[in-house]
Amino acid sequence: MNLKQRAAVILLDDNKNILLMHRLKNGKEYYAILGGCIEDEESPEETAVRELKEETNLDISLGKMLWEFEDEYHHGYYFLADKYAGTATLGGPELEGNNKENFYELQWVPIRKLNEMLLYPERSVGEFRIFF
Q1: Phi first, then psi: what are they for 109, rounded to 5°?
Q2: Measured between alpha carbons, how far is 39 from 21 in angstroms, rounded to an integer?
Q3: How far is residue 98's CA from residue 93's CA, in Å, rounded to a whole number?
Q4: Number of independent structural domains in the chain
Q5: Residue 109's domain is classified under what CATH number?
């Protein structure tokens, strides 16, 4: 099977809040880590910066890779953003396709609340290789 390659960014505000995509899709509510598919000839780092800019309109300075994640569908690379500039506003395909049945909203979520919400990728699925 050919796994989708994905890059994502962990963006923290004062180490208290994380920026996530709040979703309502097919009657299901969940949150997702910001990121997207790696395009041809693009590195995971380039994808992470591009996707965050498209989805949030923020400019970031990318930090270290935190972990790799692999499940039955994806091979993902997860990076920490060192710095960001601007105000988070929804953009790109998420803004264009936003409607009641397929809802997107950027939301700063307190880190302490992460265990109380449905967050994708689910921690119980796949294998994480952590780089600390």
Answers
A1: -120, 135
A2: 21
A3: 8
A4: 1
A5: 3.90.79.10
Can you name the residues that pair with 80 across neighbouring β-strands?
10
- The model's confidence at residue 1, banded by pLDDT at 50, 70 and 90, is low
Name the residue with higher pLDDT: 119 or 125: 119
- 111 and 17 in contact (C-beta within 8 Å)? yes
User: Pick from 76, 79, 81, 64: which is nearest to 125 by CA?
Assistant: 76
Q: Read off the pLDDT band of 115 (50, 70, 90).
A: confident
Q: Are 34 and 56 in contact (CB under 8 A)?
A: yes
Mean per-residue pLDDT, 76-91: 95
Task: Give the domain range for residue 14.
Answer: 4-130
Contact, 111 vs 26, CB < 8 A? no
- Span 13-30, pLDDT tens digits: 988 999 999 999 989 999
Residue 116's SS3 state is helix
DSSP secondary structure, 15-53, as one string: TTEEEEEEEEETTEEEEEEEEEEPPTT--HHHHHHHHHH
